[in-house]
Each structure stands twice: as C-alpha cells, then as structure tokens.
Specification:
Length: 554
C-alpha cells in the first residue's frame, strides 16, 4: 500500500493494514480511531517523511526514541524487510555504532525488562520485553556493526532483502538493492561468497523464500545447488534451528520439497530424502512415500487452520504435493463436527511448549515428517503383489530418535516425536472395534503426553493415505474413536486416563503379597480395572487383589 499521502503524520492501522484514522499527534489519532472503529484492535504508526514513506510502529519505537542515541543506531535486517512488506514484526534488530550490550542494558532497565548478553565477543545484547498488544515476549537485539561502516555491515549480510536499514526517522539505507528485489519477489545473495561465508544460509535461503512466497534469483539458486554439500560443515544446533523455523512456517511442505529439489534434503534429513524412492501400492493416494509425507504435513496444517477458525482449509493447487491432499469436502465437515467441541482444549494442548520455543503443534509436524521413515527399511512385496511395510512404525521411531539426537534435540522433544512415529497406526487399529474405557486407558498409558497428538496425526495420515478414495464409513469410524479418546483425555482424565491409586505397595504387602515384579503387575491390573469402571472403592480394590492372589496360587 502507498502511504505517501500520510507522510509525516500518525495513522491507525487495522489488522489488514488499511488506514482507520489520521492525525497530527498520537493522541489525536488514537481518539479518532476509537471513535471510528470502537470494536477493532488498531495499531498506531508514524509515517516517515522520507520515501518510501514506511509506517513506523508506535511500539516499541516511540518508547525507544528517548532511550537511544540520535546517531549511530539503525533498525536493520529482517524488521526492515517486514516493514516494507507490511508484515508484523516479532523481533527487532538494531545495528549500533558502539556499545551494543551497554545500550541493551540501558533499554532493559528503562523498560523494566529482562536483559542478557547474546554475544559478548561481538558486543551484542538482547532485551526481552512483553508486547502490550499481544502480551507475547518480544526480543530487541542491539549488535555493534560488523564492518567499518553501516554499508559494509549490510553488504556482509546474507540476502539483499535482509541487507537494508532504517534510521529512526525512517530514512532507508539500501546499498545492495533489497527494495527492488522485494518488489521483484526475489531472494538474491548479497555477493558471490555469501554461502561460503556462512553455509547455514543455504537453508535460510529456502526458508526465506517460502516465508515471503518469493523465488530464488537464478545465480543464487545455481550457487546454492553447487554448494549444497557444504551444509555438512555447519553445527547440528544451527541446522536444527533452521529446520525448526522451516517446519514452524506454513506451508512447511513447500520448503521441504524445495530442499529436495536443490540437493539439501539428503544432507540434513537423509532418512526423509530416502522416501523419494520408496513406492507404495494401492490403497495409497500417493505412490511416492515422500509425496505422501508432505501431504500428511499439509493435512496437519489443515487441522490447525480448522481449529483456529477456518471453515475449510484452503488448497491453492491440489496438483502440487505441498498443498492439502485432495480430500472430499464432506471429510472436512465431519472433521469439524468432531474437533470443534474440543477446540479450546486442543488449541491449549497444541500451544503448550515441550521445550523452549518448541510447542506441541510444531513437534506434531515433525511427527508427520518422520512418521513413515521406517518404510525405506521395511518395504517388502507380498505374494499378492502388494507392497507391505510390516513393523515400519517401530523401525521409524528408532530412526527418528537417532536423527533427532544427531540434531541435538532436547530429550523431551525426542521422546514426544518418537512416540508419535511409533504409535501413528494406533487409531486406525482402534477404529476397527468400539473403543472402550479400558482401550482408552491403555492408549494413553502407552502414548502419554503425545497421545492427543497421535490422534491428530492419525487423522491427517488417513487423509493423505486415501485422498479422494476416503469413504464415509471409514472416516466416521476413525472420528468416533478420535472423539472417544478426546473425551477421555479432556473430560474424564481422573476416571479413565490417570485414575488415582486406591492401593499402594504397602497395602499389597499388608494383604499378603511379597515385594517383587508381581506387585507392579497387580497394581497395573488394578488401575486398569479402575479405568474400565469395574472398581471404584478401596474395599473393591482389596477384593480384586485377594481374588488375584488366590487365582495365582491355584
């Protein structure tokens, strides 16, 4: 949008970046905005007097102006790119001429925010402050120039669209032509040595292109393909972080397909790359296992979109493997009927972090990515001529654990993702019969924290397996089992999922049982009987143990 008519003035922006009100001061603009749009959440911005007349957000810039020096500080990199694209900014990067850590500490003290040195050797400090509008933590990073001048610092950056800076008055500094590449929707390296200087940029190029729906500039793509093997020189932690960001974005499958196309997937996720040559026979909608995997990830994202309010997740082009698998329209309607009664609980479950900056929603995508990796090692052809993958969940879970350990994932995240992979067939098996309370207890006993994610992954997997061949009979059976498992987890946790113990080991000893493995088996059998609704009192529990011991002796 062209904001030049508002140059030098304050504006209130809607969530779609349209102008709701204009004023000479912040208060005047805020009052006009409240009068015009009393029910909307609006954001104030000051439009720079300098071309290209960028709206500079009121927060945090208005508060920072009095804290930062008048010269020698610039907004730089990603935030400038996002301002030019009209995107929300979650982290703010400032380039400063000197004393990055000292300036960050000063800002943190003034804003009563947290401070810590991000890189003391390079004099880079970080402030963590809460956004007053979203109430989410936001990072303000202050880094000393990595070059004699600002222009030299920008030229050392990865891509031209990230090599721009803004003065606090909104003057654009663009030595590499990033604004023109933004308009042309291109990701271009800043120089011929960009990937050699830091090979992690190979992954970052793919991630940025997908994030803003851009294309790789021709020479950049050629250099990326030629230097793809050098990604193996990058530390596992940095590769992991890039892949985490890649899987977090939507559509993640597009980035993964691009990694395969340019020769990077084989170096960072060789187990997933191997799926390109693994063929499946009917019933699978996609014969190629990698295509099926990408469709499953897209279906997971579709489920997320449905839970967040989309009536039916959009599929821009069903012919491309990174979009939603072509599933009958009624399948999404029936899915909504099943999921929406548990909408708030499911969203809370998915948003909860397993480790820092690793919510369950992101790890569910990793489960979808790895759920079929075991097929490369377990593929057989039966006498019926059909392809079989006996034991692929268990094999895949072991392969997943090995790869995630190599990528330095935290233990809790590895455990959750590996469980998703090991148990992803569980719902399909449960749907063959009516799901009892005992079966629900056993399901969550075996899947633990990952259980709800296992159900969601199984639903996405079914859509990717059957495609247009999905029948209402099969789908309704899966959804009935899913609803029963959600009800047990969210509405009956103390009755079905984790019933409180009626007896303990000391009680069993008092009833005549000697310590040993049998004690654990009896306690588990007792708890399972509780979950099934067969035992509800201590007296009944004691009778159960006595009967069990009598039966064992006879």
């Amino acid at each position: 949008m062209d904001y030049s008519p508002y140059a030098g003035r304050w504006i209130a922006l809607t969530e779609s970046n349209t102008v709701a009100s204009v004023g000479a001061t912040r208060e005047e603009t805020r009052c006009a905005a409240r009068a015009a749009r009393p029910k909307e959440r609006l954001r104030l911005a000051w439009v720079s007097s300098h071309p290209p007349h960028i709206p500079l957000p009121e927060w945090p810039l208005a508060e920072l102006r009095s804290l930062l020096p008048q010269e020698g500080v610039w907004l730089a990199g990603g935030p400038v790119r996002d301002l030019l694209l009209g995107r929300d900014i979650h982290d703010w990067d400032f380039a400063v001429a000197a004393q990055g850590c000292a300036l960050a500490r000063k800002v943190a003290n003034a804003l009563h925010a947290a401070y810590y040195p991000l890189d003391e050797e390079r004099d880079t400090g970080r402030v963590v402050v809460t956004d007053p509008h979203t109430h989410r933590p936001v990072m303000l990073d202050f880094a000393v120039l990595r070059g004699a001048t600002l222009e030299e610092d920008l030229q050392r950056r990865d891509f031209t669209v990230n090599a721009m800076a803004l003065t606090l008055e909104g003057v654009l500094i663009d030595p590499a032509g990033g604004q023109a590449d933004l308009q042309a929707r291109l990701i271009r390296m800043t120089g011929p040595n960009s990937f050699k200087d830091d090979p992690v940029r190979l992954l970052r190029a793919i991630r940025h292109a997908n994030m803003v729906r851009f294309h790789l500039e021709t020479d950049t793509e050629m250099a990326l393909r030629a230097q793809a093997p050098s990604i193996k020189t990058v530390s596992a932690e940095r590769v992991r972080d890039e892949l985490l960001d890649m899987l977090h974005a939507t559509p993640a499958a597009q980035s993964l397909r691009a990694l395969a196309d340019v020769g990077l997937l084989n170096h960072v996720l060789p187990e997933v790359h191997a799926l390109q040559t693994v063929q499946q026979s009917a019933l699978h909608h996609y014969a190629n296992t990698l295509a099926h995997t990408l469709a499953t990830i897209s279906a997971v994202e579709g489920i997320f979109a449905l839970l967040k309010g989309a009536a039916r997740p959009p599929a821009t082009d069903s012919a491309q493997v990174f979009t939603l698998v072509p599933t009958p329209t009624w399948a999404w309607s029936l899915l909504a009927e099943t999921l929406l009664p548990f909408q708030a609980a499911l969203l809370a479950y998915l948003d909860e972090p397993v480790n820092a900056e690793m919510p369950r929603a992101d790890l569910l995508k990793w489960g979808a990515l790895f759920h079929d990796v075991g097929k490369a090692e377990t593929r057989t052809i039966g006498e019926d001529g059909l392809t079989h993958f006996y034991g692929h969940p268990e094999t895949g879970a072991q392969m997943t654990e090995t790869r995630l350990q190599a990528l330095r994932f935290p233990g809790k995240a590895i455990a959750l993702i590996s469980t998703l992979v090991a148990e992803h067939m569980r719902l399909a098996n449960a749907a063959k019969t009516s799901l009892t309370r005992r079966a629900a207890y056993r399901f969550y006993r075996d899947t633990g924290e990952a259980g709800v994610g296992v159900v969601l992954l199984a639903l996405a997997d079914a859509m990717a397996v059957w495609g247009r061949g999905l029948t209402q009979t099969r789908w309704r059976a899966l959804l009935r089992s899913a609803a029963a498992l959600f009800k047990a987890y969210f509405e009956q946790p103390a009755e079905v999922v984790a019933p409180p113990a009626l007896l303990n080991g000391h009680d069993l000893i008092a009833l005549g049982l000697r310590p040993g493995p049998q004690m654990g088996r009896i306690l588990e059998a007792l708890r399972e009987a509780q979950a099934a609704g067969e035992i509800a009192t201590r007296e009944a529990a004691e009778q159960f143990v006595t009967a069990t011991l009598t039966g064992a002796e006879s």
